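tool_call predict_complex ligand=phosphoenolpyruvate
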Amino acid sequence: MKSGRRPLIAANWKMNGLKADGTALAGAVAERAKAAGTALAADILICPPATLIAPVGDVLAGSPVWLGGQDCSPETSGAFTGDIAAAMLRDLGCRAVITGHSERRAGHRETNGQVRAKTSAALAQGLVAIVCVGETAAERDAGQALDVVGARLLHSVPDEAKAASLVVAYEPVWAIGTGRVPTLAEIEAMHRHIRTLLADKLSDGADVRILYGGSVKASNAREILAIADVDGALVGGASLKADEFWGIVEVAPTR
Ligand code: PEP
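tool_result ok
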């Protein structure tokens, strides 16, 4: 059954890349996207580190590949050394920003409330916000995965969010960068749960794209992307090689 939700394959380069390799990687993805033309079944997004947003943006200009940030401030401007406002991302041509990635929740102690404020700031600037939620290994082992992810989701997504500018990424913390992936049944159950909660919370929650993230690569993408409520992938390590990343884009189903 067609959902009408176009898949989104998003690259999170994290803190990787200098100008030469970052622009070369973005160029390789942009060339493939241009060559695919209307046959492209998915939206494609690259979120480089902040230092590469401008040069990567120059390379992506004129291609269908979107540019995005990995984080934004909840504030609009002012004395916040080192932070980047959503308007600044927008100014550089970004269409999207990741909020609440588990590496920021853990490493920078970001709370659900802060993630919600960052997401609101992104939405206010017309950016698509990709809100990340996931459970730790201990939470899954304790049988709490659905409950903790549900709570994180409901407290991280602002009430004003709309499907056109909200994407949710389910990323089990224990699957990020580890090569470990939940079973297809576990992914399906979590995405169905997230869909139900979104449909309750938002008037158009049925249309929100829900991505899976955590050790997605070309060899496992087809079966993951085929799951009913999986509307794309958030890709870390495998997005750093053009062939590997493109291998994921290519198997995105037409919806
Ligand atoms: C991520 O950082 O969002 C991610 C999913 O990483 P990886 O694909 O490397 O597991």
